[in-house]
Amino acid sequence: MAEEAFFEDDEVFFSDDSEPSDPLPSQENDYAEIFDEIEQLQDAKSGWGTAIAILVVSVALFLGLGAWQWSWEMTAILIPILFIHELGHYIAMRVFRYRNVKMFFIPLFGAAVSGRHYNVAGWKKAVVSLMGPVPGIMLAGVAAVVGLFFKHDLIFEVALWTLIINGINLLPVLPLDGGWVMHSIVFCRHYMLDGAFRLVAAAALLVCGLFIGPKFLMFIAGISLLALPATIRMARIAARLREQGLSARSADAQTIPHETAVAIIEEVQRSAPAGMTSKIVAQQTLSIFESLNARPPGILASIALLGVYGGSFLAAIVFIGVLAIGQRGGDLGQFMQMAAEQPQHAVECGSIQQAPAGVPEGASSEFRTIVANFGSAEEAEQVFAEIADELPPQTSATLFGETILVEFPTENDAARKQIFAELEGKSDDVFAEVAELGILFRLLAVAPNEETAEAIEQAAADYFMLPSTMKVIPPWSPEDDREPDLREKHELALRTYRRLQDFDLDIGSDGRIDPLNEKLQEAFRTGDLNEVNELHKQRQKIVEELQRKAFAKLRAEGPESVDVELIDLYEAWWNELVLDDEERDRAQIREIDRRRQELNIKMGARMGQIPVQDMEPAAGSDRYLTTSGSVTRNGVLLQIDWITFQREPHGAAALLDWLCEQDCMDIKYEFSNGIDF
Predict the structure, then answer these.
(1) Hey, which bits of 293-422 come out as E strands?
(2) Which of 579, 607, 635 is the last residue before a domain boundary?
(3) pTM (2 d.p.)
C-alpha cells in the first residue's frame, strides 16, 4: 500500500487522477521541497504493461507461498475468489474515473486495487467499497443453489469460501470493506467520530489477533494505532479548513490548486510534530485535500447505501447457513419448513417452577391437566405467583415458559371447574385435558453441534419406537440411577431390539417368491379371490420361515453382540402374530393380547424399566413416560413432535432439562388439546 494513498479496505485510493502536470509555483522558499514532493506524487503513473506485470508477479508469489502455507487446492480456490472481489472494485473505480488503477495480490494476505482521484464524493467511496463483496455474495448465492441441486462438493466449497471471505470483508472494522463503507457514510462526518471508530477497529483487530487469529491482525492493529494520532490530526485540520470555507475542488480533477495547497501546508506545519519531512507533509496535504472533497452522502443516499450494506451482510449469513445445512446432508426444504412452522412459545433453561414442590399424590394415581398459555413469560409468571398459594388440595401448578400447567386428580371435578374458571379469567388460551385425546406437546431446539443433535435424535428415536406397554425408562428421566454396568446391559438389549425392528428380509433371494408373486398378480387380474387367499398363505409361510432363519442368524452372533434372551422373547411375541384371523375366537384374542403384553413387559425389563408390579407401573413412577412421540433432525435443528406424556407437567419439564443439560438452545414449544395440530 503506497504511502501517498488513503486506504479503502484492500483498495488504495490515491489523491489524483492526473497526467503529468506543469510544476506548481512555489510561493515561499520554505515550501519548495514540499511542492516538489507533491509534484512527484501527482505525476506518478504506471502503464498497462507495468500494471499487468505487477498483477502476474503478485499472483505467482501468492500461489507459491499460498501452496506452501495452505495447499495447492486451497490456493487455487482463493485466487479466483479474490480476483472477482477485486475486479468489482476495479470496475467501480474505472467507472468513477479513477486514474492509474491497478490490481495486485498480497501473498498470504489477500489482494488490493489502487487508484487516484481528487474529486471523489463520499457516496462514490461507499459504492467502490461495496462493489467488491456484494457481487461476490450474489455469485456465491447462485453457486450455493447450484451446489445444493447437483450435490457437487467443489461448488459447495467455492461458494462457502466466497461467502466467508466477502462476508468477513463486510464487517464494520477498518481496514475491511465494511469499515470503509461505514466510515464514508457515517464516521467521516466528525473527526471525533472518525478517531473513535478507528480506535475501536484497531482494538477489535488486536483482540481477534490475540485470541482468535491469525496473528498478523495484531500487526495491522499496531500500525493502525501508531497512525491514529496523525489520522485524527489530519481529520481535525480538514474539518477546520472546511469551516473556514476553503475551496477544495480541483479544476481539472488532476492537480491540487496552489492556494489550497498553501493553506493546507500551513495548517499541517502548524500542528505537526517537529522534524516532519517534506515528503510526509506532502502526503498529508494530498490526503487532507481529498478529505475536503469527499463529503458524506445525503440522508436518502446514506439510507440506501446502508440498506445495501446490511442486506448484503445478512444475505452472506443466510447463504452460509444454507450451505452448512446442505454440506451436512440436511434437507434444506425440511429445514426451512421446520423453521417456518416452529412453535410460538419460548422457554429458557432453568426457568421451570412448581408449586407446591414435589409430586401431588391422592387417593387416585390418575391425574389430568389444565393448560393456560400467555403472551409472555412475565405475564405467565405473574399469574403463577397469584394462584400458587390458592390451589385446591392434591393439585400442583407448573410454570413452563409462557405456559401454566395445573395438574389435579381425575376424580376431583370440582377442582377442575375452580382452576379452569380462574385461569380463563386471566388467559385467552385455556383448555383441559380430555382423557381420550390427552395433551399433545411439540418442541423445537437447536443443538450445540451436529454430533450432539445426532445423539439426541438416536436416543429419542430408540425410545419412541418402543411400545408404551414396555414401560422403559425414557432418556430424559431424572430418576434414572442405573449403574454403568447395568445401563450398558440395557443398551445392548435396546440395540438388539432396534435391529429386530429394522430387519430387512432378503425375500427376493428366495426362488419361491417371484413365481408366487406372478401368480398373485394373475389371480388379482382375473378376480379369483380364493386363489389370492391361497397364494397369500403360501407366501406368508415362506416369509415366516425366512423370519425364523433371520432370528437364528442374529442369535448366532452371541451374547457379546446381541441380547440373546431378548431375541427369544421377541420371537415368542412374533409367533403370537402369525395365527390367521379365522383361527382366532374372542377368548383366543384376549389370551393372545395378555401374552403379548406380558412379553412386552419382559422385553422392557431387559432394556431398563420403571418399577412395575402385576404389569402395572408403581404409583407415580410413570410420570415421565410417553404414549406417543416422534423426533426429526435436520443438521443441528431438532423437532420432537406428537408427544403425549402420562403426566404432562412432569414429562415436559424433564424433557426440557435433558435438552438443556446437552447445551441445546433457542427452545420453542407448544401444548395442544389434540385438535389444533
Answers:
(1) 345-346, 353-355, 367-373, 396-400, 403-409
(2) 607
(3) 0.56
